[in-house]
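All the exercises in this workshop are built on plain-text protein records. Sequence and backbone structure share a record, each on its own labelled line. The question running through the whole workshop is how a given chain folds. The record below serves as our worked example for the rest of this section.
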Amino acid sequence: MPIIEVEGLSKTYRVFRKKEGLLGSLRGLYRREYNEVKAVSGISFSIEPGEMVAFLGPNGAGKTTTLKMLSGLIQPTAGKATVLGHVPWLREDAYRRRFALVMGQKNQLWWDLPAADSFQLHREIYSIPKDRFDRTLGELTELLGVEKLTRQAVRELSLGERMKMELIAALLHGPRVLLLDEPTIGLDVVAQVAIQKCLRDYHESRGVTMLLTSHYMRDVEALCDRVIVITRGTLVHDGPLAGIVERFGESKLVRLQFVGEPPDHAELSRYGEVSKLEGPSAAIRVERHRVAEALADVLNRHALADVSVEAPPLEEVIAKVFEEARPAHDAA
């Protein structure tokens, strides 16, 4: 049975439209005009227990709004959803004890206090037994390598260290569902890898269900096997991560290392778009269905020291999804 079920979920905001100039401001006091902004427009999906799902879309697509509805922070305009059998916006205590929301741009820890003090506050709020709390805290601090930083004021920590503390606070009560909104935003590569490893290890040991939004495709590739894509509030793709590359990755990158003098740019252009030609090395974007034919022809004509065929970067594939979805959305 799905642990998260969403059916026709929508959220529309009524936004005041202010006119220019002093006269427009005065008129706005007596006759206010509003625009309706559809942040989320009738999306439906379900997530099984233990799945790690990437929830992707451009800025303003409705990702954060959807996570806020699933966490009960805001109510939808229409549609329904259940998480762990609960309606999120009813905000039942039984539900709030079983999920966690981590937002990379929001802090839940007290800024001027050590993180350890905020952890103790979480223990009291969630009524976590002390032995379980100590054991979980020890595991998480060791996993993230921050054992010696918990008594340091949060404001004195680096961005990466603060994000690790935020993640620990979210996992202390052992949630069954973890909603992650840009958990690695602004972090360097080392901190990103540490967060990814923690989430992956925690998932393997606890089987927690995760719904992740991120603009870093490294997060998606490292953690998720399934991708849900929305744009302008509308769901446009739901399927395996490998499937989205197959569907929208129209070309592959063929890297060639020639023995001796390589062919010129004009000759290589017969196979596809030449993206690099330096010394004996070349890189060509070849249409997926022509890769085998192109390689066979190159091997017949030239001696190669090395050859590799790579899928397009996930960033390019996701951008292609957005581009193809925009005209259909505008027409609708």
